[in-house]
Amino acid sequence: MIYLGNIIHLVESLPKILTIIMVFSIPLSAVWGIYRYKMQQLKLKSNTASPTPTLDGTDLRLLKETLAQNKQLEERVKNLETIVTSLDKDLLSVNTNDTAHVKEMATKLER
Question: CA Rg, the chain, in Å?
Answer without folding.
Answer: 39
